[in-house]
Amino acid sequence: MAMPTDNPEQCYDNESVKFFYEKSGKNISDHWRRRDYVIVTLGMTVCFIVIFSNLLVIAAIFKNRRFHFPIYYLLGNLALADLFSGISYLHMMFHTGPWTIKLSVHQWFVRQGLIDTSLTASVLNLLAVAVERHQTIFNMQLHSKMSTRRVFIIMLFIWLVAIIMGLVPTMGWHCLCDLENCSTMAPMYSRSYLVFWAILNLLTFSIMLAVYTRIFIYVRHKSKQMSQHTTQMRHKETVFNLMKTVSMILGCFVICWTPGLVVLLLDGLHCDVCKVLLYEKYFLVLAECNSFVNPIIYCFRDKDMRRTFMELLCLCRRGGKSKNASGVHFSTLEHENYKSRKAEPMERSNGTPLIHEVSEDMPVSSEKWN
């Protein structure tokens, strides 16, 4: 970690942003070009879409009691991280191109810290979702029995860690006192910090992929032990469909962020022949696009979420809710068990039980997924 030394002459805290960009070899223009206008216009458009779509997801989870379960609270927190990401990128759009020259060193660190915080929050939320799914699936339950209070404590912890990680470079892990160790992509970040940051996130991605792979293997193994009993088949579809949805969210995140993290790692390792600046902006746009992919996945996979979106947008009548949606239903276990007992009161399971039996009473809430 490059910490400031006792001799202030060895540090460059009072230098301009342009000074560091020129030292690192990253071009910075003092006038607007057509390319700058295109980047800012497209970037701002994407940011507004990200902000609006994730606000819609958060509002839907608050509005619909069918989403008041730990897994949805964590997915809502992921939407909050994506919303914060949209705000962070919007802030960057107003502090990029020729505007970058006018930034102070502190303002530049704030700009980068917001992006780092949003990424950390997204990664930690996905890790929390993976752990929650591992816990529930291996107990063959649809929803965790974790209390709402504990879920919110986890969410607060996620944001606390994310904020700290965003502040780490400002607190000392920079190159203001060691110009030879400055990054090319982020001219005031230490190369060692970029290596740490990229490896930590790539390692987390690998852990999450391993967890989901283990879950899928377990579910497939259990499904082979099941009979063709209607209740068991519904349970299998229920669990597997939720797994498909959260896996799609994880997969899109990994696809969108991995190229950028790999480029950061190469920059941190001082790969001169890699030409990281050539791909930087493209991978930044790809990472930004991830923040509005999740609402599309929710809308595509979840009928109740899609219906709630439409209600929030006033695109359908309040009293015109259809109870007979087509497709595979993703209901809570309680609802599925109730329907199965209602349709087949005399039938008994003769295979390995996939999910434990629950109360005989009809539950209040249910979810439906494609």
TrEMBL record:
Compartments, as annotated in UniProt: Cell membrane; Cell surface; Endosome
InterPro entries cross-referenced by the UniProt entry: GPCR_Rhodpsn, GPCR_Rhodpsn_7TM, LPA_rcpt, LPA_rcpt_EDG2
Primary subcellular site in the record, as a coarse category: membrane
MF-aspect GO terms: lysophosphatidic acid receptor activity
Residues annotated as transmembrane: 37-62, 74-94, 114-131, 151-174, 194-217, 238-262, 282-300
A GO cellular component entry from the record: plasma membrane
Keywords attached to this entry: Cell membrane, Disulfide bond, Endosome, G-protein coupled receptor, Glycoprotein, Membrane, Receptor, Transducer, Transmembrane, Transmembrane helix
Coiled-coil ranges from the UniProt annotation: none
Topology relative to the membrane: Multi-pass membrane protein
PANTHER family: G-PROTEIN COUPLED RECEPTOR
Family: Belongs to the G-protein coupled receptor 1 family.
Protein name, as recorded: Lysophosphatidic acid receptor 1
